Structure to design on (1656 residues):
């Protein structure tokens, strides 16, 4: 005696790989399926629809199959409301809570599908039921574990939750489709930079916001001026970096060196190795970066341009830091919250030579945000792109030549 | 006015990704399709079948679509015979010749599907029509460009050619399925080695042949004894390597050093840096490796075990070589032919820390041969596995610990 | 008219490269020198002595030369007392403060050379003058910038400061000398592991303390059991890691998976991808790792062994963290202080597959602490060893095979 | 009872590290030394001189010490003539033959120091004694093992041989000094490219010859046009590459693609994956590259510019090759001879993204030739620079941006 259930797949079920994965899941888990309806969207933007009856030997097997199908975007044809349970204490979720993906998600409440706000991976979903005399209707949004408050209504189990994995861009339709075949240094660099420049320009033209995530290598490799230029010219709206990035940028502004090396002349001035620690002590003495700019201590560089152009920056602390600067947020949870806020505003994120900060920002991004990731280490690029982002370009190249070329292309139109 | 053609997909069309790719191709190229029959093989080993009518705006577009569909394994529902043209000169193929994939392939001749022998990538297919009073029926086989002889009947265009891309192993069914998610050093090493050992043991139990492709790092990293043991105990049947590998192995046998470093004590004996060139001159003096073994000059090591256990070895020369040894095949085309012969006999190929030799061997393998690829550089493993092999395990690890552990597991049953 | 000054070099001035560097400095900066005394210590442990008169064209050039010579360990033959200045505010050092190296250092105060306590790179030196009716004599110690308190007497300039760069171990005298020729994967792995085991055993035999710095890859690669064993058997006394390491270790204990993958069977159990976030929520619910062990929630693994064997652990937070666990120190400065305390107690530090935590620990170590650094990425090993450590072994290998082999060698005596 | 011998060190004995190494050798090997004369060249270009008496416990120890000292450039103060022995057969050297370094070397013959011609690593030195009624005086030159002819007078042992290791450039005096601190991607890219351009310009201004060694990645990364430009404008005089480089360059010329990818538009034209094998068959049909240029089949690209600008090229075959092209030298020994001839004429060698060909060329270079090595993999750059070259710049960057920027700087003077 077998048990059965009808599930549906909707949307870009072929391009996203959803159908192939769902069929595979059923077969792997020893189930059977019968395709009842299969409408293929034959145009690029058309959506497809598939309805199938899934059969298994017993309820347990069926539940397992349905769990997996749910992960891949399939849903029951007659979905129930989501199950809610109150958080027993601050920071403690109900057992069996639903842990989010980074894909667009809906939660069924009172027979309606509520879109989940601020989608982010590995979070709980909290539902506010509205009512209580208030005018607001019900809403659902994500919360990280450490933000959970006692009594929050948290979604448990996956019934009544619907995930919409993004389609992968098809064919040879520009750089965001280009990455599908894996990451390699053997790509046409100049052409790829041109396409990245176009997507920055496009984002700006649409009124979007560009967030740069930058590691110290940007400064060491001599690309600081070019990044400063992108901030000044309005192509980079926000900056996410660490204490080290800021210190090396400020050192360059004060001493012309980065970790004691003159990035123009390649000379190591005497005492240069002490510049970075002197830089820190001077900024501390001034009372912070903004104060240092106001006092004329800092007259150029990326941080300078952020200050004078009102480009918000988040400097997240780490256990590697010297100093740190007064501007650096030393608490990791606080820093994550600041990063999260920036990430939600970003329409395009450019990650430049930093694994730590890029992962931190990437963790907060929905799969629908455009991401450009540039690093000289292919393993870093692979790791950063391997998060189910729908629109990601990876480029294995030298930031020291990449950022200047990007700035030239965008600003000088070369 | 549109034009249409009916195509079929057969086999593991879902697991192999064939269906998804074929649908994508039609959409990308602006065509339309109508699925007429769609039978899904719902059991792991069952095959599926899909028949669809593909429509395009004109003959050119349709031809382009059909070409792409063919690459992904689709075929016309009413296939013609393959087109044959004679090679105009030695080493010169007819224009528009069909260039092979590494997948199982059939050629339609006289209404019959001939399996293509010795499938290998980037070759021409030559058809011998039989007849001529001979008893042999017609046959088809691959030839590399430099082996083409004037008058060879070469397949041109892709009509009448059928490719069968292998299914990708599904789910979590052992190590050969494991690689699907990309290459990473962060894998459970001991467990993966155990599974590789099992597939070696299985291959041997089935009477199969194991080919080891080994780079000099095997010796430098101290794994030479373990590889020698695998040859002696019959787990490795054939060896493919370069001049450098043999020199360092023989140096170890003669001086206990590899490039002058004692791999046991980590000492660099005085004059050690000259050992490798002295080793070469001694082997030349002896008249080759086999002679050196017979004369008692070489008493252990990988090459020694190959000689005394009749394990055939191919030493392919390269422009990096010192010497070279008399046994090294210095001509690249001759060396490729020797490699090709070994590759065709192999049921399992273990590639150990050499990109050059692994690519050379990999180029000669059909997609159905099992491949294990071990290197400490993830980029090397990715590149080697990125060739559409159906059964490949990649492992990012240190050969210096990998080979001894593999030998322990296989020989001592640990 | 030229100016001159007499400087002295003492100690292992040849082996440490000091002499070569000092001669080079004078020549590079356009000075002249006349060697007055040159006594070479001709035995391995004998020290050498060199006295030379350095001449330059003017006071400025001479000062520059002397600054550089000081960096390389030379000192004036008639040293003055160190200059001291009070810190104007908390966290603010006097201008021109002396920034430390990681080498043994002395400060001249009241005609006596005080050894600087807790030597660490990029710190200020604070002198407590004693007196004040107290019995204590004067002392000198390092302080990081953020620990400076108003009124601290801080050393400025380098007069009266003496640095003693360590000799580099000579020749082929075991693994700590072995690294001199750079980092490479092509080293004899088994022999090198044996020598590392010996230095661990030796450190323990001398009553020393071994600190392991471990990244999440230790768990992913299946080496968790072996590291747990090293803690249990007393070969690892302290642990420095991050939130991620602890989560993956605890996940293994609770679910048998690491990031959802079973490290024994290589299976990915259904729902496995949620295990790590469930693990975090369970540990939060329990009230922390120690509580979870007491409640029987965690029954094995590295963290378990640390708890039951009273091996102190520091879990430093980062912006990448999920959760975090209640045990994780989220503030970077606090975490650095905890790391610093551990680092000072360590006689041997083993860094396993983590750049972030290894740099953080390495920043706190004097150049005299033994360091073993293991990573699969040669760039990481190079970066970690490139800090002037006197006794460092780097090994480019797979922690997944390294830690088990190390444990076997140490515990089973294999 | 001890034995003693007097040795001398001359030249840049401090800058080259020679003195430090020699002192270390004596100490490591248990000997003693007494410095009799020590004259330090106190100006940048002045040479130093050191004479010391080396003492050991017995003749064997002394011989060992002297062997090591010889390797580091020390020589006996009363050198004998070199020992010569005839080669017993073709390709067979006398036992104990002297194996060369890549440093300038002299051989003492008949009381005179003969400079060794065509210095190259791991060769034998052959002395032609002159006389025989011929007018030529005696001469000495290197021969690789496979070129030895029966009866050649080969130097054995190291008596009467003198090696002059080059000084390492000092301080921050431009890019060739810059590499001393190891290889890293975190260098100021634009500045470093500018300095490389200057050294190319300087070499050309001095009438020197520039050899480019190029891998296929140059073409894949879209840098082919820029390299072609450097050939056309006379900044690159000779090319050393492989079959693959030429094929991809020619494919770009014929189809606008490289391995099937359009490097301008990033599109993969249909059938693009067959372009490289079609390219090969077309060039074979034409009769070779030069013929293809003459027939108008190839109208641009690197190979085209080499042909029309009479820039000699060597295409060395390898076992990875498809085809190969008729121009490719398939025999490794023949190819090495062609490479050797080019290498000897080169004053500056630029190695671009190829380990195989760079090692092959590097093997043939004396330590006095300038070398620039560019690769995105730091391990490759490290390996290539680790050969005792006196004048080497390594740069870890993307050739796809490097070559265009270099061409801009050189040709457009930007």
């Amino acid at each position: 005696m077998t048990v059965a259930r009808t599930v549906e797949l909707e949307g870009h079920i072929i391009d996203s790989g959803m159908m192939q994965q769902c069929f595979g899941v059923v077969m792997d888990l020893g189930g059977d399926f019968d395709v009842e309806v299969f409408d293929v969207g034959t145009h690029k933007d058309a959506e497809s629809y598939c309805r199938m009856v899934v059969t298994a030997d017993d309820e347990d097997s069926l539940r397992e199959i349905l769990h997996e199908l749910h992960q891949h975007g399939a849903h029951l044809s007659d979905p129930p409301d989501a199950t809610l349970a109150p958080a027993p204490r601050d920071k403690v979720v109900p057992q069996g809570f639903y842990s989010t993906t980074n894909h667009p998600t809906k939660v069924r409440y009172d027979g309606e599908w509520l879109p989940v706000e601020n989608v982010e991976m590995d979070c709980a979903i909290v539902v506010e039921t509205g009512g209580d005399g208030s005018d607001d209707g019900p809403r659902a949004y994500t919360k990280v574990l450490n933000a959970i408050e006692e009594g929050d209504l948290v979604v448990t189990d996956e019934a009544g939750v619907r995930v919409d994995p993004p389609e992968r861009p098809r064919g040879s339709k520009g750089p965001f489709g280009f990455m599908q075949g894996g990451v390699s240094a053997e790509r046409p660099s100049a052409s790829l930079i041109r396409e990245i420049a176009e997507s920055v320009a496009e984002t700006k033209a649409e009124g979007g916001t560009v967030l740069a995530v930058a590691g110290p290598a940007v400064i060491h490799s001599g690309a600081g001026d070019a990044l400063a230029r992108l901030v000044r010219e309005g192509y980079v709206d926000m900056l996410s970096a660490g204490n080290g990035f800021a210190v090396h940028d400020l050192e360059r502004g004060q001493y012309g060196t980065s970790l004691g090396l003159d990035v123009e002349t390649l000379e190591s001035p005497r005492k240069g190795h002490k510049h970075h620690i002197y830089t820190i002590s001077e900024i501390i003495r001034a009372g912070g970066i903004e104060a240092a700019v106001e006092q004329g201590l800092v007259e150029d560089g990326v941080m300078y341009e952020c200050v004078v152009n009102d480009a918000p920056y988040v400097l997240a602390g780490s256990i590697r830091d010297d100093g740190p600067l007064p501007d650096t947020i030393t608490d990791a949870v606080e820093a994550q919250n600041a990063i999260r806020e920036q990430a939600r505003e970003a329409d395009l994120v450019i990650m430049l030579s930093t694994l730590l900060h890029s992962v931190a920002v990437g963790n907060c991004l929905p799969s629908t945000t455009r991401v450009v990731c540039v690093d000289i280490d292919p393993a870093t690029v692979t790791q950063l792109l391997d998060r189910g982002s729908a629109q990601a370009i990876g480029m294995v190249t030298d930031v020291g030549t990449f950022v200047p070329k990007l700035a030239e292309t965008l600003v000088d139109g070369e």
Remarks:
- DSSP finds 14 helices and 19 strands in chain B.
- The mean pLDDT of chain B is 88.
- The two ends of chain B are 70 Å apart (CA to CA).
